[in-house]
Amino acid sequence: MKNEFTFLSMLILGPKQPGNDIDVYKEPLIDELLELWKGVYTYDASTKKFFNLKAMLLWTINDFLAYGNLAGCATKGKYGCPICGENSNVVWLKHSKKMSFCNHIRFLPQHHPYRKKKYTTARARERASQCPTILTAVEVAKQLSEFTNDFGKGRKRGCGSEFDKGWKKKSIFFRLPYWEILVVCQNLDVMHVEKNVCESILNTLLDCKGKSKDHYNSRLDLTKMGIMTHLHPYEEEGITRLPAAAYTLSKSDKKLFCKRLFDLKFPYGYSYKISNCVDMEKHKLTGLKSHACHVIMQQLLVIAVRGLMEEGCREIILRLCRFFHELCQRVVDKEEIIKLELESAEIVYKLEQYFPCFSFDPMIHLVVHLAREVRLCGPVQFRWMYHFERYMKVFKGFVSNYARPEGCIANRYLAVECVCFCETFLKHNDNQDSTEIKENPLSAGECFELGQGDITIAYRYVLFNLDIVAPFLNIHMDELKEMHKNLKDNQTLLWNRHSEGFPLWFYDKVTL
């Protein structure tokens, strides 16, 4: 996860991106992975021996939309969760025109205290008792065993009944013999999930127009579903009114919320300047970057909501912030992660009691699966997209001609790779026998004359850093130590004779 170990393999134009046809571009990659799985005869420079090198693809790291393109699954609709698959509990919201993930009590154990609630219908009780199973790669391969891909723009993705079950293609990764037995093939990107959850909560708390999850249509959906009756809209004097929810903030509360974020000061380099994103007049936050949402979600939101809204709603938001804080720790404790899996299910279930169904999009639902991937794959620092997003910013900085951005990126990237290779070669080159002087083609140097002092410093620097001169330096240091010892002995003799009555001028300086 460092820049020097990351290389650019392909450039695909954004307007012409292949989407689900990305498998056509991945054919050379799969061929090389199959070759590496069998083994490649390789020379080891450290031991100076040949050995059979084998390698495998552990997992992929991408955002949620690319997740669907690589895995060939749907990221929207009733099969919007690629981990739950057909076991997803999704409800169509008629007024909001959107699918909503609900009934997260299913992820809690059967003996959990939250399951003691009484259900109005037997169907609701049955849905709550159904514990969802995780869709494994073996089951996916079995479902898609007879699936035929049909690539090309404007064509129906695949054929067969599996197209109606959320599968658009059979991923090319299933050509790898070990892909079916991997526990986690594609990772959920914690960075984007955290950013989307943070923006959803902030926009709902501040009631941002067009971005809030609490609006008239979402309240009508609650009325149609017959739940959360205290939030149903009502008519009063010919005006439709929406009752205040537990998370509703007054104008003064919004002003205080924004002022707390605006006045916060950070150490230099700690975070993006969040005060630039706070609009004190309209009481909203705009232009938040991923890392800014990361800081707000884990540290600042706890301060900003202090003393605001109802206690129960505030407590569940604080639990959500604490969940992401513990999830992103660098040290993973297996027992704590198991508790965190249960905590995530409790948090999402409690959010259902305060926020409308429109809020529960796939990003909110994926929170219940994040701790499981940490338990299976380790800390999230090695599996999120901060590194790649920053590297994309570097590539964008390479563009000088916006008419040919891909050419600019390719040329600048090639130059950077050459410079890094030369720097690494010169740093680790131990061959001191070669005296051949080669020209430096990387820069147009200017000639200037060194002074005698600079030449002396350069000579000494070269001499003190050559291995061939080291033995002579040791001999010289031994001679200096011997002279110093003789000088101390002469000084001791001089002092003894002076104490016997001989004057100091009696001795010649050359003798000393």
What do these coordinates show?
The chain is mainly alpha-helical and 512 residues long. Among the domains are: 89-131 and 188-384, no CATH class; 463-506. The chain contains 17 helices and ten strands. It has helices at 22-25, 27-38, 64-71, 122-129, 137-143, 190-205, 216-225, 251-263, 290-304, 311-327, 334-352, 362-365, 367-377, 386-397, 405-428, 452-464, 470-499, and strands at residues 40-44, 49-53, 60-61, 90-93, 98-101, 186-187, 234-236, 239-241, 278-279, 284-285. The strands form five sheets. A two-stranded antiparallel ribbon has the order 1-2. A two-stranded parallel sheet has the order 3-6. The protein has a two-stranded antiparallel ribbon with strand order 4-5. α10 (311-327) packs antiparallel against α11. The two termini are 64 Å apart. Residues 432-443 and 497-512 have low confidence and may be disordered.
Topology:
Layout: H1 22-25, H2 27-38, E1 40-44, E2 49-53, E3 60-61, H3 64-71, E4 90-93, E5 98-101, H4 122-129, H5 137-143, E6 186-187, H6 190-205, H7 216-225, E7 234-236, E8 239-241, H8 251-263, E9 278-279, E10 284-285, H9 290-304, H10 311-327, H11 334-352, H12 362-365, H13 367-377, H14 386-397, H15 405-428, H16 452-464, H17 470-499
Parallel strand pairs: 3-6
Antiparallel strand pairs: 1-2, 4-5, 7-8, 9-10
Helix pairs in contact: 6-9, 9-10, 10-11, 11-13
